[in-house]
UniProtKB/TrEMBL annotation:
BP GO annotations: lipid metabolic process
PANTHER family documented for this protein: CYTOCHROME P450 FAMILY MEMBER, OS06G0191800 PROTEIN
Keyword Iron: yes
Transmembrane parts of this sequence: 23-47
InterPro entries in alphabetical order: Cyt_P450 (IPR001128), Cyt_P450_E_grp-I (IPR002401), Cyt_P450_sf (IPR036396), Cytochrome_P450_Monooxygen (IPR050665)
Highest taxon of the lineage: Eukaryota
Keywords: Heme, Iron, Membrane, Metal-binding, Monooxygenase, Oxidoreductase, Transmembrane, Transmembrane helix
Organism of this sequence: Aegilops tauschii subsp. strangulata (Goatgrass)
Main location: membrane
Pfam families in UniProt: p450
Gene Ontology molecular function: heme binding; iron ion binding; monooxygenase activity; oxidoreductase activity, acting on paired donors, with incorporation or reduction of molecular oxygen
Protein name: Secologanin synthase
GO cellular component, one term: membrane
Length: 435
């Protein structure tokens, strides 16, 4: 306030001594007002910052402590992010024992350290955002199945939002239900089975070079390097074909852009989020915007093409996108606009299953192959079963045959069940195909 008063008195003095400074006299009150409002805005911002960065963390930590929940101490603004990054850097080069399934110590060392110090339920800080980690199986179940809307999904931040959109993963309540009604028909078992052939062809393209390698070697054994990367390519191929069918090439372009968005999202995961910072023209922000635009433009063109085809009574297509558009059309039929989803929402849904469809699956396959590599006896059993139920090379794969794979299925689903995966992280369960 001092400066404001000083300035106006100075200009008043000036106006007495110098008659040519009319403009300044007129400006002085205006400038005073601007400065005053700036001061008010600044004070409010500082107050809000103090509440968010100092008071709230303190109050939240205390409220949890009263319930017996502890955790690593909050540090101003950065929370525990620096500790996490240091712990990650320390374990980044660790090589796990071949028989070890303790990946948490390697990829999430902070989790292991904090569970050991504070128990299975603890409070940590991602920047100034509190994060309650629940490692209790029953409690996790209760939270995931609670439909009261109390457990809302966290704000993913601009980089994850660019990657996944506000699709099924990040939407809540009614929005989530509406999306689910549109997406669900595309993922029913009979629809997925229709895609078996496409998937088998993609897998065949990957395996044939392996078989050729094995055939050319002495003992009929081939060494395949970097299996993980091959599975990434395989799953990208599968999802591009099954999601976008005839528009497969454009689908692949979306995939490449999504991969880069994924890289951006994960490499900035431990940065403290400051609201508004995503609009600054930094290199990452510009690239993210460019990629988001590309993904959106390509998907929109594919969708427009389908809509045009449907108008000519050619149908939406038999791939995942076509099935979603069809479900949307029937949901919106009869003037029920509220049940339908918009262009942007369907784009977000495409992003979601593009990411979710390839990333998790390629990791699952890589891990499964690794385990089979270390457990040859199981390799033998599963191979026998597949050959018996599905037929050898050259026999077209039928979706129905998959139901008969009584050994293969549980081996895979054991690892793709998130609740199960969670319990493996907290207790010392070892991988067994116990059947
Ligand atoms: C949902 O969670 C809230 C808060 O923990 C709890 O009060 C409520 O009973 C839960 N509802 C169900 C159906 O579990
Ligand atoms: C979904 O259906 C509604 C109503 O039929 C329609 O207005 C909307 O354009 C459709 N969305 C897409 C992406 O086709």
């Amino acid at each position: 306030m001092d400066t404001i008063i000083n300035k106006s008195t100075i200009s008043q003095e000036l106006s007495c001594t110098d008659r040519s400074s009319h403009a300044m006299v007129a400006m002085a009150p205006a400038a005073g007002l601007v400065l005053a409002s700036l001061a008010v805005v600044l004070a409010t911002t500082l107050w809000k910052a103090a509440v968010h960065l100092v008071w709230r963390p303190y109050a939240v930590a205390r409220a949890f402590q009263r319930q017996g929940i502890r955790g690593p101490a909050y540090r101003f603004f950065v929370g525990n992010n620096e500790e996490v990054m240091a712990m990650r850097a320390a374990t980044a080069d660790d090589v796990l024992d071949l028989g070890s399934h303790d990946i948490i110590a390697r990829v999430m060392p902070q989790y292991k350290a904090w569970v050991a110090s504070y128990g299975k339920i603890f409070l940590s800080w991602s920047g100034y955002t509190p994060s309650l980690c629940v490692g209790d199986h029953d409690m996790v179940k209760q939270i995931l199945s609670n439909k009261t809307g109390l457990y809302a999904k966290p704000n993913p931040g601009p980089n994850f939002l660019a990657l996944l959109g506000k699709g099924l993963v990040f939407s809540d309540g009614d929005d989530w239900a509406r999306h689910r009604r549109i997406v669900h028909p595309a993922f029913t078992m009979d629809k997925l089975k229709m895609m078996t052939r496409t998937m088998a062809e993609c897998a065949g393209d990957m395996v044939r070079p392996w078989e050729a390698l094995a055939a050319a070697s002495d003992g009929g054994v081939a060494r395949v390097d970097d299996v993980g990367q091959q599975f990434v390519e395989l799953t990208a191929d599968v999802i591009s074909h099954t999601a976008f069918g005839s528009s497969y090439r454009e689908g692949k372009e979306v995939f490449m852009a999504q991969r880069e968005l994924q890289y951006i999202a994960f490499s900035t995961m431990n940065n403290v989020r400051v609201p508004g910072l995503e609009y600054l023209p930094t290199k990452t922000n510009l690239r993210r915007r460019q990629l988001t635009g590309k993904v959106r433009g390509t998907l929109m063109a594919i969708i427009r093409e389908r809509q045009a085809a449907a108008k000519e009574a050619k149908g939406y297509g038999n791939d995942l996108l076509g099935l979603m558009l069809e479900a949307n059309a029937s949901a919106g039929a009869g003037g029920q606009k509220a049940a339908a989803i918009s262009m942007d929402e369907i784009i977000d849904e495409c992003k979601t299953f593009f990411f979710a469809g390839h990333d998790t699956t390629s990791h699952l396959l890589t891990w499964a192959i690794f385990l089979l590599g270390t457990h040859p006896e199981w390799q033998q059993k599963l191979r026998e079963e597949v050959l018996r139920e599905c037929g050898g090379t050259g026999t077209p794969l039928h979706g129905d045959a998959l139901n008969k794979l009584k050994l293969v299925s549980p081996c895979l689903s054991h690892h793709s069940d998130p609740l199960n995966a969670h319990s493996t992280t907290t207790s010392d369960t070892h991988f067994t195909c116990d059947r």
